[in-house]
Amino acid sequence: MPPAQADIILNSVLASLNIQNSTFEVIYNQIPAIVHDLHILNAEQAISPKTTGTISERLCEFGLKSAVPDFYKNIGNDWNWMADFSVYGHPFNLLISVKSFKAKERLLVSGSGNNLSPTIGWGLFDDPAEWSIERVKRYLFRSFIVIYMPTSLYNKLDANVIGIKNINGNPFIRELNTFVLDLRNATVNNAIDISRI
User: Fold this and answer.
1) Architecture category of domain 5-196 in CATH
2) How confident is the model at residue 35 (pLDDT cuts 50, 70, 90)?
């Protein structure tokens, strides 16, 4: 079976950055450079939204492979309307919904809406207008426990948005570069302790 278009594009970018043989964590930490090169490729020849979505999932998975390699799963097509990955957790499993550059309504509706299935939002988001305090608070009602975004967007957000806390009293909006460390710090006996997120 030939490689997917997303993998062909992503592998070419990793090669251009000379990180194709690096650890998952090294690759994950280079997301800003990877996204920069993807923007250049997209300007030369448009990358389809489906391919962009798959690339975003691959980038998130590099973080999962770094932090929780033995207890996460790809959810697969039957349930990908809700989330893309699940992580074994205590007392409940954690869902991860991956989006590319725009949250739109797709991220909001991907939240489980049930505190028994807390959700992480992970994306390469780039539009500050999508992150007003009113809109961000809606994610809490959909049982999101944290949303990760690029530092370039995080730094443009209102202080009141950044100050929002999750159900555990921890920051709700976080930078992508904290994702791996956050998951590691929340890991107890090969499961994510949801209270530590």
Assistant:
1) 3-Layer(aba) Sandwich (3.40)
2) very high
